[in-house]
Design brief:
Layout lengths: L1 H21 L3 E5 L18 H20 L10 H6 L4 H10 L6 E5 L9 E5 L5 H11 L4 E5 L12 E5 L2 H6 L6 E2 L1 H4 L5 H16 L6 H5 L2
Parallel strand pairs: 1-3, 2-3, 4-5, 5-6
Helix pairs in contact: 1-4, 1-8
Length: 220
């Protein structure tokens, strides 16, 4: 199912994130609604009390925003997520958090706030792909890794987007849109570490201008 393969592919992104941080890079992960129900797993990873409090403040702002509209968090997971096998937002949060890897969170940014530190940074953005991407661009990203199990033509004109498919069937269907097939983890053809290394190496190749992602090739 999409849920199973997504759970295996997301740690591969986290493995790549760890490699990037260890190499001295800045890595952003985002989307408030997609970590909110697993935030208790993130607060112990914040580097100090100040950063931990900023993370809690961003979650509180989101909760208050929903209260003002008299709505709850049931808009996530989306209908497509549920069709793919996700049962609830807690499962989705665990997958989203897995993308961040295991290093300490050195800073928390409000939407569009500029990056100030190297290392793993949580950028509090909305969950909408295009809004999140725009906020991350405003914060200073130069490349984005985007995981998908259902498929999307999403791209950013100002930064390359490496698309990682959590299902081999999707990769086979969209060979000219998917850059890395992480579905081979679920089928046993590769390990999380092997796909994570593949993602890391492709990031370096794209950032160096040696390779072009499919989204840029098609001008998405």
């Amino acid at each position: 199912s999409d849920a199973f393969s997504g759970v295996t592919s997301n740690p591969a992104v986290g493995y790549a994130a760890d490699l990037l941080v260890r190499a001295g890079a800045t890595v952003l992960f985002s989307e408030v609604s997609e970590v909110r129900d697993g935030v208790h797993l993130l607060t112990p990873r914040t580097i100090d009390e100040k950063v931990g409090q900023k993370l809690k403040d961003e979650m509180a702002w989101y909760d208050n925003y929903l209260d003002l509209g008299s709505v709850d968090r049931d808009a996530n997971p989306t209908p497509g997520n549920k069709e793919g096998g996700l049962a609830n937002i807690v499962e989705k949060s665990l997958g989203s958090i897995a993308k961040s890897g295991s290093t300490a969170i050195v800073d928390v940014l409000s939407p569009g706030e500029k990056v100030k530190k190297k290392g793993l940074v949580y950028a509090a953005t909305p969950a909408s792909d295009f809004v999140c991407g725009t906020c991350q661009l405003a914060s200073g990203i130069t490349l984005q890794v985007f995981t998908t199990g259902r498929g999307t033509p999403y791209g950013l004109a100002m930064a390359p987007v490496i698309k990682v498919s959590s299902r081999t069937a999707l990769t086979n269907k969209w060979k000219n849109l998917i850059d890395i097939d992480a579905g081979k983890i679920a089928t046993g053809e590769a390990t999380i570490e092997e796909v994570g290394q593949e993602i890391f190496e492709l990031i370096l190749e794209v950032a160096s201008g040696n390779k072009k992602v499919w989204a840029d090739y098609w001008g998405i």
